[in-house]
């Protein structure tokens, strides 16, 4: 069906030129930098055309060779400023992440359920689904300091209005650009020669009256001294209100009705002929309610309302509590009933999108000291503030409440006496304590000085590019309204002494304990302040990056089929981070003298006191030295054989933590003696070095009181230290691509079509192991490197297990891209042009192998719980003339599954369910289709008014067991945007 649709509309895109990048306001969303068609310049840019760099200066194609006429073998998609403007997004990140080859990118709709990850509101790209840490993102071909300890940058901190284009290299490029370019490279190119003033004012809102958006951008550029001294600047402010938590139960924010509390229920029965796992809507837990539920024993099924009054809870599924010690409920599934009283469910409280406020200032000054050569300096200041609500309440099932608790209604105390019990099991969502809020503030300062240009040496013109960059990123995470677990446990254990309700524990009383009622919405302000101090969890991270780089490119030798092109250079880089956290989470031994944190013997001195958000202290540094050489050798060049070039590169890199590694690539392009037809291919060995977090993770310590020691066949007391691993080595990947392209043939000018197959195999993938895995792998002599990570027979101190990451797993993925475009000038005699565009990516397989014994590799291609659907496409049709423009855009991904490991069966037909091949009754997740429509009107030559509607049909996301998958599905609904752009 997909292929018929694509063939019918002829909307597959590849191979347009740099010239196509510069066409009018609704120009192509993407074009291939290496397949040049006839140049075209937008009318509004015609006066500036002479100021723009040449194609040889600005094309990025996964190669460092920078000479006229060079064609690289790696497929590259280019998105111009006109396409970015036409998409009318408040953040350029959203426009780029819509490309089908980008799978699993983060953003403001991802990580909203998190308290402790530190990635809330972080906008970073992932190519080919291999993760943000394996995609190298550059600004003007230069590295950018990470906005997270994983090393990934935050695109929201980039200057956006002056972005001339974005180049997306769909393939490994480590040999040319260095570590992390396993999935590919995303390079933001700024307009360094802009002259004039331009701006953009935009507003937006969803169909549900939320996520209010406001954007204000202004850029300027001027030149002095006969255009030799150029100054440009850019200031921006953007606000997106986000979509916060909804009501308790299943009511999402502002009336969204697609959430059905869909849950993957584990029956826990493996061999009765029925599926082990069931997918069901309107599931509600049997272990807690909004204001409290007795979950076992003779009083099981008694719940409490907001006023603290008891009532009989409606379980759903016609469930009847067994009132036994195990808390069984007849008619229900283990842990869940269907329907009934859903008001205690907490998932609807998760933010659908983080609120974000983005501030950015950018400046550049360049002086052309000789024609074509300049020295320059740039400065960028960015700040991004986000906020999200991870969930409703602070759920605490499995509590034990004494029948003597004075907050307990008298009728329940009497029922305890009649039943002959002194305590009962209890669970609550803690609605009376309110909802946790996570505030993240990222601030970045980045400065670059450099020189680039051309010089003739020995009769050969060489281009050069050298720069030094220093970047600092500060991240502040603050969590509000969250409880300290031990204080909560003591506050709810209340007794009556001398007519006064107090905490039972005398040590707790001596240290300020205030008793807390958890029956209903009756928590006192004093109790809330005791268990949730105003100084909540926090983390302060400072990351620095220093880079010195020099690159040369030229064609020193003329060979039989053309010039031999060469690029070479080197780079030095230093990465450092330091993180500090509050002592409740990190441990009181790290509290500065005279701090504001009172001593409390009930708190864990080593940290981990918060319900969530237990951040830790840490620091680390590593340096990188590398050099590379790249050559492009012409092999054939004639009318009868066509033009064949071989491109090869090698890079040697020395990491201070893991030693020396090599990356390389070999590829070629062959322009066949057929009008516009080209074949291309490349093989490469790419690397990703372990990042700061993996090497130097801030330690987390927990106690394992009954850890099984296989060496002595006994249980021991052990301390688990979750730490970084400085012995990690780089990941290695083999990238292969092969494709064919038809570019601008004379028989149909403006047509560009291509097909590119890819395969990525990554070994030594860095992955974390649990304490038991670490010990067992050593005991079984499967992975001897884990033997140094623990000591369970320590006579000089406590036994310990260092839980850390190892180079153990592997990833194997393959697929293909189909891209095409066609531009029809004066369609049917109408003025202007009509453009068809399309991009599609098909993931054939995405296999991850943990490397652990007893496990099977898992294929997640087509798993719509993840980031790699079978098919994903982006289609665009646009019409523009000198008065107005229209845009229609379709985004789609295919139906998929919950997981390929499942065996689908029905009652009476199921085989025995195993951990490797569990049985399930439904294994389907639908795809989604989104229609976007926009347009603009030229009020004057300088002023353009525009409007756009995204998700016109208000398409709801799939109801998955993980709430929704915001990396794929749109959970916001229809969005309206309108604004005005101007340029003088």
From TrEMBL:
Instruction: Kindly list the GO CC terms recorded for this protein.
Output: cell outer membrane
Domain (TonB-dependent receptor-like beta-barrel) ranges: 486-952
What's the domain of life for this entry?
Answer: Bacteria
- Which SUPFAM superfamilies has this protein been placed in? Porins (SSF56935)
UniProt-listed Pfam families? Plug (PF07715), TonB_dep_Rec_b-barrel (PF00593)
Return the InterPro entries for the record: Beta-barrel_TonB (IPR000531), Beta-barrel_TonB_sf (IPR036942), Plug_dom (IPR012910), Plug_dom_sf (IPR037066), TAT_signal (IPR006311), TonB-dep_rcpt-like (IPR039426), TonB_rcpt_CS (IPR010917)
Protein topology in the membrane: Multi-pass membrane protein
Q: Which Gene3D superfamilies has this protein been placed in?
A: TonB-dependent receptor, beta-barrel domain (2.40.170.20), TonB-dependent receptor, plug domain (2.170.130.10)
Tell me where it mainly resides.
membrane
Show where the record puts the motif TonB C-terminal box: 967-984
Q: Which residues form the signal peptide?
A: 1-33
Q: Which residues form the TonB-dependent receptor plug domain?
A: 72-185
Compartments it resides in: Cell outer membrane
The record's comment on protein family reads: Belongs to the TonB-dependent receptor family.
- Protein name listed in UniProt: TonB-dependent receptor-like protein
According to its UniProt entry, this protein's organism is Novosphingobium subterraneum
């Amino acid at each position: 069906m997909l292929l018929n649709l694509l063939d019918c509309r002829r909307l597959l895109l590849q191979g347009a030129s740099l010239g196509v990048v510069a066409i009018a306001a609704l120009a192509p969303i993407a074009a291939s930098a290496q397949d040049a068609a006839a140049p075209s310049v937008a009318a509004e840019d015609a006066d500036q055309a002479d100021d723009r760099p040449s194609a040889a200066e600005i094309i990025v194609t996964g190669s460092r060779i920078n000479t006229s006429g060079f064609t690289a073998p790696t497929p590259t998609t280019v998105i111009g400023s006109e396409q970015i403007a036409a998409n009318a997004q408040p953040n350029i990140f959203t426009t780029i992440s819509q490309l089908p080859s980008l799978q699993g990118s983060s953003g403001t709709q991802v990580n909203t359920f998190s308290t402790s990850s530190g990635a809330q509101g972080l906008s970073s790209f992932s190519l080919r689904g291999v993760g943000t840490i394996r995609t190298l993102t550059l600004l003007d071909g230069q590295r950018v300091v990470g906005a997270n300890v994983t090393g990934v940058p935050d695109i929201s901190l980039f200057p956006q209005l002056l972005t001339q284009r974005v180049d997306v290299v769909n393939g490994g490029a480590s040999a040319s650009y260095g570590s992390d370019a396993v999935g590919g490279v995303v390079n933001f190119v700024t307009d360094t020669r802009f002259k004039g003033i331009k701006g953009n004012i935009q507003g937006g809102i969803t169909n549900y009256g939320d996520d209010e958006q406001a954007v204000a951008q202004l850029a300027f550029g001027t030149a002095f001294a006969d255009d030799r001294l150029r100054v440009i600047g850019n200031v921006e402010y953007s606000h997106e209100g986000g979509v916060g938590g909804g009501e308790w139960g299943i009511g999402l924010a502002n009336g969204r009705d697609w959430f059905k509390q869909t849950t993957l229920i584990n029956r826990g029965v493996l061999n009765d002929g029925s599926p082990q796992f069931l997918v069901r809507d309107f599931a509600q837990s049997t272990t807690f309610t909004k204001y409290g539920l007795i979950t076992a024993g003779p009083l099981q099924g008694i719940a409490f309302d907001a006023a603290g009054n008891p009532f009989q809870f409606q379980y759903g599924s016609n469930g009847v509590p067994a009132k036994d010690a195990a808390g069984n409920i007849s008619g229900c599934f283990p842990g869940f009933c269907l329907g009934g009283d859903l008001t205690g469910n907490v998932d609807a409280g998760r933010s659908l999108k983080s609120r974000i406020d983005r501030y950015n200032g950018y400046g550049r000054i360049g002086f052309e000291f000789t024609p074509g050569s300049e020295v320059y300096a740039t400065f960028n200041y960015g700040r991004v503030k986000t906020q999200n609500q991870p969930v409703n309440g602070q759920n605490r099932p499995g509590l034990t409440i004494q029948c003597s608790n004075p907050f307990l209604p008298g009728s329940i105390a009497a029922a305890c006496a009649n039943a002959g019990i002194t305590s009962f099991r209890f669970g609550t969502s803690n609605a009376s304590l309110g909802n946790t809020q996570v505030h993240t503030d990222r601030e970045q300062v980045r400065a670059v000085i450099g020189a680039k240009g051309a010089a003739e040496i020995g009769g050969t013109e060489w281009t050069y590019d050298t720069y030094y960059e220093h970047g600092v990123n500060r991240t502040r995470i603050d969590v509000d309204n969250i409880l300290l677990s031990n204080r909560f446990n003591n506050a709810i254990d209340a007794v009556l002494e001398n007519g006064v309700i107090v905490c039972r524990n005398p040590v707790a009383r001596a240290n300020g304990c205030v008793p807390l009622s958890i029956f209903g919405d009756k928590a006192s302000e004093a109790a809330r302040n005791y268990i949730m101090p105003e100084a909540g969890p926090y983390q302060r991270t400072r990351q620095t990056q220093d880079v010195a780089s020099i690159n040369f490119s030229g064609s020193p030798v003329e060979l039989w089929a053309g010039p031999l092109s060469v690029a070479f250079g080197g780079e030095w880089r230093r990465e450092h981070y330091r993180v500090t956290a509050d002592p409740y989470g990190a441990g009181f031994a790290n509290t500065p003298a005279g701090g504001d944190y009172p001593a409390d013997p009930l708190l864990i001195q080593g940290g981990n006191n918060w319900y969530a958000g237990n951040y830790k202290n840490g620091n680390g540094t590593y340096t990188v030295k590398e050099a590379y050489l790249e050559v492009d050798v012409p092999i054939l060049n004639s009318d009868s054989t066509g033009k064949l070039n071989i491109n090869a590169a090698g890079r040697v890199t020395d990491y201070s933590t893991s030693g020396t590694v090599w990356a390389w690539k070999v590829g070629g392009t062959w322009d066949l003696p057929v009008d516009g037809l080209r074949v291309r291919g490349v093989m490469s060995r790419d690397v990703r070095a372990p990042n700061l977090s993996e090497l130097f993770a801030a330690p987390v310590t927990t106690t394992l009181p009954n850890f099984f020691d296989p060496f002595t066949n006994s249980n021991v007391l052990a301390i688990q230290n979750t730490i970084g691993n400085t012995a990690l080595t780089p990941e290695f990947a083999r990238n292969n691509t092969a494709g064919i392209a038809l570019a601008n043939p004379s028989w149909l000018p403006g047509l560009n079509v291509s097909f590119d197959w890819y395969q990525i195999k990554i070994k030594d993938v860095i992955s974390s192991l649990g304490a038991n895995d670490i010990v067992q792998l050593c005991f079984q002599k499967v992975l001897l490197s884990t033997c140094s990570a623990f000591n369970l027979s320590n006579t000089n101190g406590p036994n310990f297990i260092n839980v850390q990451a190892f180079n153990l797993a592997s990833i194997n993925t393959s697929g293909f891209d189909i891209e095409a475009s066609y531009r029809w000038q004066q369609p049917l005699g109408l003025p202007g042009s009509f453009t068809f565009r399309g991009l599609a990516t098909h993931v054939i397989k995405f296999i991850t192998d943990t490397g652990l014994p007893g496990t099977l590799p898992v294929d997640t291609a087509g798993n719509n719980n993840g980031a790699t659907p079978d098919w994903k496409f982006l289609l665009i049709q646009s019409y523009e003339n000198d008065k107005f423009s229209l845009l229609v855009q379709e985004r789609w991904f295919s139906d998929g599954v919950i997981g390929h490991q499942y065996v689908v069966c029905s009652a009476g037909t199921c085989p025995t369910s195993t951990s490797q091949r569990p049985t399930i009754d439904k294994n389907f997740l639908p795809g989604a289709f989104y229609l976007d429509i926009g347009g603009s009107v030229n009020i004057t030559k300088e002023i353009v008014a525009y409007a756009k509607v995204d998700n016109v049909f208000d398409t709801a996301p799939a109801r998955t067991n993980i709430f929704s998958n915001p990396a794929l599905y749109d959970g916001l609904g229809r969005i309206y945007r309108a604004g005005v752009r101007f340029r003088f």
